[in-house]
TrEMBL record:
GO MF, one example: fatty acyl-CoA hydrolase activity
Alphabetically ordered keywords of this record: Hydrolase
NCBIfam families named in the record: YbgC/FadM family acyl-CoA thioesterase
UniProt cross-references to InterPro entries, sorted A to Z: 4-hydroxybenzoyl-CoA_TE, HB-CoA_thioesterase_AS, HotDog_dom_sf, YbgC/YbaW
The family this protein is said to belong to: Belongs to the 4-hydroxybenzoyl-CoA thioesterase family.
Organism, as annotated: Zobellia amurskyensis
Taxonomic lineage of the native organism: Bacteria, Pseudomonadati, Bacteroidota, Flavobacteriia, Flavobacteriales
One Pfam entry name: 4HBT_2
Protein name listed in UniProt: Acyl-CoA thioesterase
Amino acid sequence: MSFNNISFRVRYSETDQMGVVYHGNYAQYLEMGRVEWLRSTGISYKKLEENGIMLPVVSLSLNYKKSAFYDDLISVETRLKKTPSVKIEFDYVIYNENREILVEANTVLVFVDMKNKRPIRCPKYLLDLIENRDKK
């Protein structure tokens, strides 16, 4: 399945007194990767919400391998695990600039109708965009 990669520098506010990235910030990094993966596919969270769809995270798993530090250039590689149905699942690898693995992670999100708060199937237009992306 297709993947996307983003890079950015660790900000001081994301670290503890030792200059190490606080573990809770990795969930935000994953969200950044996921949002950009969707955007590169041709859809945004905002557009999904305008169409009455939410994507809450129902599962988050992180496996820490190595610390990231203040001012490190890190990359988040986001990969769609399989074709979405009611759920959409992503795998992630976060690297430092030496391509050392810092974190391996996984998230599962569910497509939810904003009106009735019930799970729904992945919209066809999103499936079509994903299929077209994989052909590139």
